[in-house]
What does this fold into?
Amino acid sequence: MKILVCAKQTPDSTVRVKVAPDGRSVDAAQITWAVSPYDEYAVEMALERKDADASTTVAVVSLGAARAKDSLRQALAMGCDEAILVSGPGAEALEGLGVAKALAAVAQEAKPDVVLCGRQASDDDQGLVGAALAEALGWPHVATVTKFAPADGGPAGSVNGIDVWKEVEGGHEVWRAPGPVVLTVQKSEKEPRYPSLPGIMKAKKKEIPEKDVASLGIGASLPKPEIVKMEPPAARGGGKIMKDGDAKRTAQELARLLREEAKVL
Amino acid sequence: MKTWVVVERKGSELRRVSREIAAKAAQLGDATVLEVTGLERYSPLPAVAALAARAKQDQPSLVLIGATPSGRDLGASLAARLGWTYASEATDVAVDGDAALVSRMMYAGKVRATVQAKLPAVVSVRPGAFTLPGGAAEPTVEPVAADASAEKLAFQRFEPTAAASGRVPLTEASVVVSGGRGLRGPESWKMVEELADVLGAALGASRAVTDAGWRPNEEQVGQTGKTVAPDLYIALGISGAIQHLAGMTSSKVIVAVNKDPDADIFKVADYGVVADVFEFLPAFTDEVKKAKAAS
Ligand SMILES: Cc1cc2nc3c(=O)[nH]c(=O)nc-3n(C[C@H](O)[C@H](O)[C@H](O)COP(=O)(O)OP(=O)(O)OC[C@H]3O[C@@H](n4cnc5c(N)ncnc54)[C@H](O)[C@@H]3O)c2cc1C
Ligand SMILES: Nc1ncnc2c1ncn2[C@@H]1O[C@H](COP(=O)(O)O)[C@@H](O)[C@H]1O
It folds into this structure.
């Protein structure tokens, strides 16, 4: 099976993101970058297939600034076979539908059985690219995926359909895709693995080919939301902290406050 | 301006978020409330085909859809199919000339943004973003029949989660009771559920808890879980890691119970209790029971 993972480089989840003085962008100065969390789950999910069947190949693609190569190298160190960077002038300005078109061009060339995206990128938080990529490719799409596996039957090594576990309220729906499919990942079965030392050494030596976004023929500019204003979230804190020690008394007091002051009981 | 609302049901009832956005759209003016019918289970291809065909006739300027798991998927797929602007998880929407002004969180809840989405646009709206006016009439819903032959996927089976609770959906609940690693193990959820039952609350959990398999993944709150903004969020034995806060700091009232006075969760709490949760929780549940019985 051939898997293509789309992984975006975004601010590390531990970073405190600050709004820049212009009030409509974020201050990039203090940001450390990482693979977006859901995309890291997608990488792990792909590698779990490779663990189960060594003939599986996993390629990872990222579109963005040259620094995204560091995140691709991280994915290689985790165990991906190859990485592709889509970059060049205009790449960073692409969003949503434009990104999906560019990634679709990469997928058309790579011809994977499965394309994995994250549920949403941890910067724009849109959750658009996976669905839009499926639309651009004309492939079906399954969202909130936690597992996939080749359907039973057919000669060894061939892909005879793919079973997909989709998280829904109260459980999972299992869907079968007869041909290539785009999945957006909610969570992998295991936590994303750490790169092994040999993995890191191997990844260092790997070539990461760069594709110029201009060569992908995305064409006319596509609509995207324009940021008018950015602000920090409403400040919280200054709450009442109770450390009386007597459980019953504190419980009475809290219930009273929630009823009379906060009016939520 | 023509506005579409695409609604969703849970069982036979319209979802609360569907009613919220229908009420909002009625205020915006010329609103049509649509429901995709003919599918036993939601799947994007047939649903999008049906809505896109209808959009070509109707030419709405703005499509509002609830930011539920299916709503997010359908909204994104529809915007892609039509080549329209898309903004997800709106916390407010206003129309300004030829654009929608959409408030939404970005950077995993660390930034509040206002974006301008040029019309026509599809916007998915967070549950609770618009309050349902008291006595709001049930909207008149028009069916849009999906053609099952547009489907490329085959449904196989449903696998229920063992611990699934059958409570109100987490993202639409007005009270959420969440537990963390401080609860020590899955057996403690008896105690947590007792409080949730009295409050009519949904259950939430930290990632430490879902990763350990104490609770199903669908209950996880945070950056890689659900985003919730209930009237009351109760965090039990949760440290308040930045990735957990990403999913719950928009809650109206936050209560935290933790034995560590320096736990980060207290920095966002309106009411904090420094206590052993095993001592405090039963006493608190009793008090809530009394309060509920008195009201
Ligand atoms: C990329 C990424 C994404 C993540 N996404 C999420 C996410 O979506 N959601 C999420 O929750 N986390 C997420 N995390 C994990 C997050 O960083 C924390 O590890 C996690 O939230 C910790 O869970 P916890 O608070 O339950 O456990 P801990 O941090 O171990 O805290 C347990 C707390 O319980 C208290 N305690 C212990 N015993 C008692 C007692 N008897 N009575 C009262 N209090 C007690 C302790 O004082 C402590 O504060 C993510 C991490 C990463 C790197
Ligand atoms: N620049 C990018 N490079 C690679 N993958 C991307 C990029 N942008 C988005 N994606 C993929 O699409 C998913 C959804 O992104 P978004 O629609 O921006 O929230 C991400 O989790 C990635 O899997």
Notes: Chain A has a mean pLDDT of 95. Chain A has two domains: 2-216, 237-265.
